[in-house]
Design brief:
single chain; 139 residues; mainly beta; OB fold (Dihydrolipoamide Acetyltransferase, E2P); 2 domains; three-stranded antiparallel sheet; 1 helix; 6% helix
């Protein structure tokens, strides 16, 4: 799915590296993956060296269902960065795996999202080398 703003994208781009590189590699492949502890099964995001539940260093990257619910939303009336055009809305999605992911909606204004709304991930190809996870309402 191509973004209509491809040539105008000037917002800060994520800088994959360290623990987050496999997450962004998955996004580029149109796969949503999160860390999962192989000792206790706890899902982890954002990525980190140890499991926050059992402190194990043993983790794997596992595929997400890509489904979740809107946990919170906020609309910025003043742009937080010159690359964003106000008003700018973001949502916090609680994924089925229990982790939270900050993003925004596609095909509707994020400010129209409501807490508890079912959503699913879509992959927005902003440029040839930048894909972002966005969400759409599940009917």
């Amino acid at each position: 799915m191509s973004s209509p703003n491809e040539s105008k994208y000037i917002a800060p781009k994520p800088i994959p590296g360290g623990d987050s590189a496999p997450f962004w590699d998955g996004i580029q492949r149109h796969e949503l993956v999160f860390q999962r502890c192989t000792d206790c099964g706890h899902w982890v995001h954002p990525p980190r060296p140890t499991c926050p539940s059992c402190r194990s260093f043993e983790k794997e990257w596992a595929a997400s269902t890509g489904k979740g619910t809107v946990y919170a939303s906020v609309t910025y009336r003043k742009a937080p960065h010159p690359g964003f055009e106000a008003p700018y809305s973001v949502i916090l999605v609680e994924m089925e795996e229990g982790v939270h992911l900050v993003s925004n909606m596609i095909d509707m204004h994020s400010e129209d999202a409501h807490i508890g709304m079912s959503v699913e991930v879509v992959f927005d190809d902003i440029t040839e080398d930048l894909t972002l996870p966005r969400f759409r309402k599940v009917e």
